[in-house]
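The step that takes the researchers longest sounds almost clerical: writing a folded protein down as plain text. The outcome of that step, for a single protein, is printed below.
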Amino acid sequence: MGKIILIVLTVAALFIMSLFCTGEPIKESEAQKENETEQGAETCRERAEVTRIVLKDGGKSEIYGEGAEASFFGVSINGTGKYRISGTLRDGQICAEAEEGMELILDGVKVSSSRGAALTLTGKNATLTLAAGSENRLSDAYEYKEGEYAQGCVSAERSLVIGGSGTLSVSGNFADGIVCGGELRIESGNLNVSAARNALKGEEIVLSGGKVVFI
């Protein structure tokens, strides 16, 4: 009789323990789902905050978001925030008037210009980010049209920071490759730069990371 009672008590104890053991993973799973939901919502918000630009010739560039406008000569960007740019301009320019905090994310960009610089940044300091796995090519004109003030393929009025893990190839056919009026800081990324005069030009040039090849 004592053995039977002992067996019953043992089975009951195992049953109670199994309830507690199976309860904890359920709580963890629910917490994990909540965390994944929050992360998903955060990613959606980030995407909504980024204006996406798909470059196309003839004033047909597609813009999803605010702060950018397509024209026959390319794309103009005005303001702060992030802009993810892809696509091709066989003969055009990207002209950005930056407010503090502007970030241009190059994600498979090919721009050639017969007028002047391929990319101009006026106004405040700006950041140029090379998207992971992307290959980007910028090439300026051999002779600049009247009214084109820039002296390089990539021309920034103030300081410019270049980062990311993609690749950027710059051909400065007229004069300089990448030129800015303030500090030019290269933090990461792969840069291939050729120029008729100076590959890199700025008040101060800081190479804190990345790889720069002068062609």
